[in-house]
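Deliverable D4.2, example record:
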Amino acid sequence: MNKKTLTLTVEQYHEIIDTMKIGFSGCRPNKDMAMALVVEANMGLRISDILRLKLNDIVKDGDRYRLNIREQKTKKERFFTVLTEAYQNLKIYCLENSIAADEQIFRFKERGVQKKLKQVCDHLGYEGISTHSFRKFFATQIYIDNEYNVILVQQLLQHSTPAVTQKYIGIQPQQIESALRKHSFWKS
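Output generated by the structure prediction step:
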């Protein structure tokens, strides 16, 4: 049965990352895979694009950093600002792990990340979570933090329509019903 990939809550995000970093009985820590998922949650890239990322893909552009990539899945060009904090964390990670600027930052396969994440989620009792949950987490947090601007999220994810984005971030029928109940301008 094909289960729908769920969006993470903030609490799940922190618990998964922390558990992956420290490990648990029967599962060794893996700070490298945790870092890849943190990058996904903060940049909104698919895991396939993160695993191809090189530090020199992020370039200084005036007073900001910029990432230009061609998405592996869609083959679309994507240009966006990378927060200084994100760039600095990646640079430190590369220095600590002796990764040259022109080398791939992460040296493992997508399947390996999925397997490790499944182990952690099974341990924590979470179902329906995959690496893509971290991209959905990014999208949902951007949506919430920016006054529910679905067009902004659509552009960030390069979705074809707002409807695709709404489905992606999981605007549920009960949320629509709740919004309608709160909106009433009837005069008696």
